[in-house]
Design a protein that fits this description.
Oligomer: single chain
Strand order of the largest sheet: 7-8-10-11-12-9
Number of strands: 13
CATH architecture of the largest domain: 3-Layer(aba) Sandwich
Radius of gyration: 19 Å
Shape: elongated
CATH topology of the largest domain: Udp-n-acetylmuramoylalanyl-d-glutamate--2,6- Diaminopimelate Ligase, Chain: A, domain 1
CATH class of the largest domain: Alpha Beta
Order of helices and strands: EHEEEHEHEHHEEHEEHEHEHHE
CATH superfamily of the largest domain: NIF3 (NGG1p interacting factor 3)-like
Structural class: alpha/beta
Largest sheet: 6 strands, mixed
Strand content: 15-25%
């Protein structure tokens, strides 16, 4: 067992959210009971995850996508009221970490996605150095990379194949990081992986020759929250369960 204050202090030290300019608040978003025995991790604080965590008798939920974002209507009505009310009635704490969870060099989304795909970063790029880049290793072609992504992430990526060059350097940034493509190209990547693709990236891939793979926002961000939660549980003597609420996006 640990207190909520001990958990908050541990996560603050581990993820250092004060280092990031983010799109919403990082840390404790909904305050629940003061003593924590079980943590459930997940990608997004959806009502489905909240209900599943309560059924699993969690005292806290740790997610990547929390409830509050810059520019949203902050009134507790509709879907937001339903989620907050469910948490507060059940006394379950909600912790959310966005960019800090992407960036952590060992437990973050980018680090864990790289490990899942057999990639190891030796550099960073992009805004706040969130993008990872490293050698392609034994992945010699974009077709081989596409097959690895499909096997490991269990979904077929959208591919803009570039010019088919041999892969020497692969860059990646989880989630909605399609805007990092130009920075990845400038960093020397032969292929770039992220969660989503927008209209301009297909043209950039064709014109620069660098391959672009959109592997799914949710699919690329399944790994950071459970890695952090498992480390938290081991360190503070808690139990942990990862609940994956699938999302086609």
């Amino acid at each position: 067992m640990a207190t909520r204050a001990e958990v908050e202090s541990f996560l603050q030290q581990l993820l250092a959210p004060e280092r990031f300019k983010d799109y919403g608040p990082n840390g404790l978003q909904v305050e629940g009971r003061g003593e924590i025995r079980k943590v459930v991790s997940g990608v997004t604080a959806s009502l489905a995850l909240i209900n599943a965590a309560i059924e699993a008798q969690a005292d806290m939920i740790l997610v990547h996508h929390g409830l509050f974002w810059r520019g949203q209507d902050g009134r507790l009505i509709g879907w937001l009221k339903a989620r907050v009310e469910r948490l507060m009635v059940a006394g379950v704490n909600l912790f959310a970490y966005h960019l800090p969870l992407d960036a952590h060099p060992l437990f973050g989304n980018n680090a864990r996605l790289g490990a899942e795909l057999g990639l190891e970063a030796d550099g960073r790029f992009g805004d706040q150095e969130l993008g990872f880049i490293g050698p392609a290793g034994g992945v010699s072609s974009v077709q081989a990379l596409q097959a690895i992504v499909q096997q490991r992430l269990r979904r077929e990526p959208v591919l803009a194949a570039g010019d088919g060059r041999p892969l020497r350097r692969i860059a990646w940034c989880t989630g909605g990081a399609q805007g990092y493509f130009e920075a990845a190209i400038a960093a020397g990547a032969d292929a770039f992986l992220t969660g989503e693709i927008s209209e301009p990236q297909a043209h950039l891939a064709s014109e620069t020759g660098v391959a672009f793979l959109a592997c799914g926002h949710h699919a690329t961000e399944r790994y950071g929250a459970p890695a952090v939660a498992a480390h938290l549980a081991t360190s503070l003597g808690l139990t942990h369960e990862f609940i994956d609420i699938d999302n086609p996006a």
